[in-house]
Specification:
Deoxyribonuclease I, Chain A, 717 residues, alpha+beta, 3 domains, 13% helix, seven-stranded antiparallel beta sheet, eight-stranded mixed beta sheet
Length: 717
């Protein structure tokens, strides 16, 4: 549905010809006197100045229906411009209703609208219109010369809206016919004032014929981009237990004041009950949160120890901006109590068979005997020092990027504080970073130190302890191999190596995917394995990494290897996984699951040298715990990324896998826990897209295209 503007103008603002008014879809043709009056709006005095033209005279025609047709050429800048100042501390909006009639150069943009900051940089929104879609210079990365959002712009008039709100965390937003296309297009680059250009201004815009119904502006701050859509705000992440605590709560409110009452009907399945199933919000109480209590239904069915239930929301209102607006279901996590009856497992039921008997005593004895073996997993000296280590690819140093996800609140925004928050929430003591920030001072380190002054940085690692270069192995940037040691306890050191491998023949799982797509998977799977390995193997890099670690392995020193290896693990691509594991190809319609038994050489070289994969030490079964780190879900229209979810166009869609590892070795080093930390699946930008969830859900918006990995060690003297 079309969602017109909702504007209440302050009394001090003068009245324009038509303004932004609720319900206005087109304008009276009598209002067209000259071509410049086609551009209208509500502006603060002293902001926008008089409109001027460049090569546009004689290229416009006022049609009988009140629209204006503009014919621009490929040989000159044909535009209207305004050199006034727009105060971004207040906010601004433009809306255009137009149709692209023809293009001079097939497939090229015809018309554009630019909000250019007055430093002369095209950092603020620069939107281009094609016959078959829309682009933004920042999104496509090529001055808008290719379509970012496909849409038929040539058959009927389409309404495009752009807005900037300094109080909205999503910054600049773009809509097409009321549908939100993207957030943070300008992001942190947007400066406080703008110059406006309309027409065929930029070199990539090749010109053609455009028919305009209207172009409107608002610089009063009365309009907020967050108010462009009726939106329902849900807060809370309910977790309930069948045997107590059985209940949890969440809240619902509206993000924009409605003009009519809004009724929200809630529904749940037979796993949970709600104390309220209908909410009513009025123009007076719209932003007052209403609390709903969720209670787990204690059934007699033995299910998974944890399972999910969705709460759905349907919205009705005489306010067309809210009526039937889509609301993402809220996922409730439920802990079942029927695996061993109402009380669950008893503490003494060590072997988890729901019976306490001599078999449990035998299991206790087995574990005790096992811990007499040096460095056995899960066994450690009670006087050992605990150390939590994390590996994290932070994506372009935390700088603004599009590939974080087109619908992410962090789209085109710096992510320094968000990355620091992930590290803080993880509880890590040492963090190995790939794609690290090279700024001095490092804004991520500054954010960490604001929380804990003990944080420091050297090269690719942050740590709460003193850091030095590894005296046995100097860092080698040409080999993407970085080596340090950390003084974590008096005279105790742990050696930390950070690697970032780049297989020469491409990312292995995608190489496998391409073979499936091309129908070139032979019947002889051992032959297929060797063909894949020979395509992507970088054995010299594997050996180089191994040899640097071998210095410490042979000496028994505590050593950790971590990083983004851009390669699958032989511990994951097993014969069992080939039969029972999840398909690594998202939305795979080929009929051949992407899961094979392949002994990837990189991880195999490391384990053969004596390194232990920390995550697989704790979770040895990849079928039960895939531990995927590449890549968290994102919107399908994310620039530079493959489509992800089931609504995407035909493939090849994204391939997911565990490519970020922590490996360790050393006398007296024991891993006691491991986890993948990543996105919260209840966040709107991730919901309904990933079947394999991270072990730990970060509380905010996930700031990377990789999940992180955490390992907890006990290290004896």
């Amino acid at each position: 549905m079309t969602l017109p503007f909702r504007i209440l103008l302050p009394a001090v603002i003068f009245t324009c010809i038509c303004g932004f008014a609720r319900g206005i879809e087109s304008r009276d043709s009598l209002n067209f006197i000259t071509s410049l009056e086609q551009i209208e709006g509500n502006v603060l005095p002293g902001t926008l100045s008089s409109w001027t033209t460049t090569n546009i005279d004689g290229k416009t025609t006022i049609n009988g229906d009140g629209t204006m047709t503009v014919s621009t050429s490929d040989s000159s800048f044909d535009a209207w411009s305004n050199a006034g100042t727009v105060d971004s501390s207040i906010g601004w909006t433009w809306e255009a209703r137009l149709r692209i009639d023809s293009d001079l150069v097939a497939g090229a943009p015809v018309f554009d609208m630019i909000s250019r900051d007055n430093t002369g940089e095209f950092a603020a929104p620069w939107i281009m219109f094609f016959a078959n879609g829309i682009s933004d210079r920042g999104t496509t990365g090529d001055y808008g010369a290719t379509v970012a959002w496909s849409a038929d712009m040539s058959t009927n008039f389409r309404t495009v809206r752009m807005a900037y709100d300094p109080y909205d965390g999503n910054g600049t937003r773009l809509w097409l016919d009321g549908e939100l296309l993207a957030t943070n297009i300008a992001g942190d680059f947007y400066n406080a004032s703008s110059m406006i250009f309309i027409g065929r201004w930029s070199a990539p815009t090749k010109g053609g014929q455009t028919t305009i119904d209207y172009i409107r502006f608002d610089t009063t701050g009365a309009y907020s981009p967050s108010a462009a859509l009726g939106n329902v705000v849900i807060s809370g992440d309910p977790v309930v237990y069948e045997d107590g605590p059985t209940a949890d709560t969440f809240t619902v409110s509206l993000g924009v004041a409605p003009v009519e009452d809004v009724t929200i009907t809630l529904a749940a399945d037979d796993q949970i009950s709600l104390d309220i199933d209908k909410l009513v919000f009025t123009p007076d109480n719209w932003n007052t949160a209403q609390t709903i209590t969720v209670t787990a239904i204690d059934d007699e069915v033995a299910e998974e120890s944890t399972h999910n239930s969705d709460i759905t929301f349907s919205v009705t209102s005489a306010d067309e901006d809210y009526d039937d607006v889509a609301v993402t279901p809220l996922t409730v996590l439920i802990y079942d109590n029927n695996l061993c009856g109402p009380g669950g497992y008893l503490t003494a039921d060590v072997n988890k068979d729901c019976i306490v008997d001599l078999a449990d005593l035998a299991e206790i004895a087995r574990q005790w005997l096992a811990c007499t073996v040096t460095n056995r997993i899960g066994c450690y000296n009670v006087n050992a020092t605990e150390l939590k280590v994390m590996t994290f690819n932070i994506l372009s140093g935390g700088d603004p990027v599009a590939t974080i996800g087109a619908t992410s609140p962090l789209y085109y925004k710096n992510r320094y504080q968000d990355i620091a928050n992930v590290i803080i929430e993880s509880g890590a003591d040492i963090v190995g970073i790939t794609e690290h920030n090279t700024s001095n001072p490092d804004p991520i380190l500054t954010a960490l130190q604001a929380n804990d002054s003990s944080w420091r940085k050297l090269g690719k690692i942050y740590a709460k302890f003193a850091i030095e270069q590894d005296p046995y192995n100097p860092s080698n940037s040409s080999r993407n191999s970085y080596a340090y040691r950390v003084n974590f306890n008096e005279d105790q050191w742990i050696y930390v190596h950070v690697a970032h491998w780049w297989p020469s023949g491409g990312y292995g799982p995608m190489v496998v995917q391409n073979r499936i797509i091309n129908g070139s998977v032979p019947a002889d799977l051992e032959q297929f394995e060797q063909e894949i390995l020979n395509t992507i193997s970088i054995q010299e890099t594997y050996n180089y990494t191994r040899d640097r670690l071998q210095t410490h392995i042979d000496a028994g020193r505590p050593v950790v290897l971590m990083g983004d290896f851009n390669e699958a693990s032989h511990l994951d691509w097993t014969a069992d996984y080939m039969v029972s594991g999840a398909d690594r190809w998202i939305n795979n319609s080929s009929g051949t699951p992407l899961r094979f038994d392949i002994e990837w050489r990189g991880s195999k070289t490391m384990t053969d040298a004596g390194m232990v994969d920390a995550y697989r030490a704790i979770f040895p079964d990849p079928v039960a715990k895939p531990g995927n780190t590449w890549t968290p879900p994102y919107a399908n229209n994310t620039p530079g990324r493959r489509p992800y979810d089931a609504d995407a166009p035909d493939g090849p869609n994204q391939v997911v896998d565990r490519i970020d590892w922590i490996m360790y070795a050393g006398k007296g080093v024991m891993v006691t826990d491991a986890a993948v930390i990543g996105e919260n699946p209840n966040n709107p930008e991730h919901q309904g897209k990933s079947e394999i969830q991270p072990d730990i859900r970060y509380s905010g918006s996930w700031p990377s295209d990789h999940r992180g990995v955490i390992a907890t060690f006990k290290i004896e003297r």
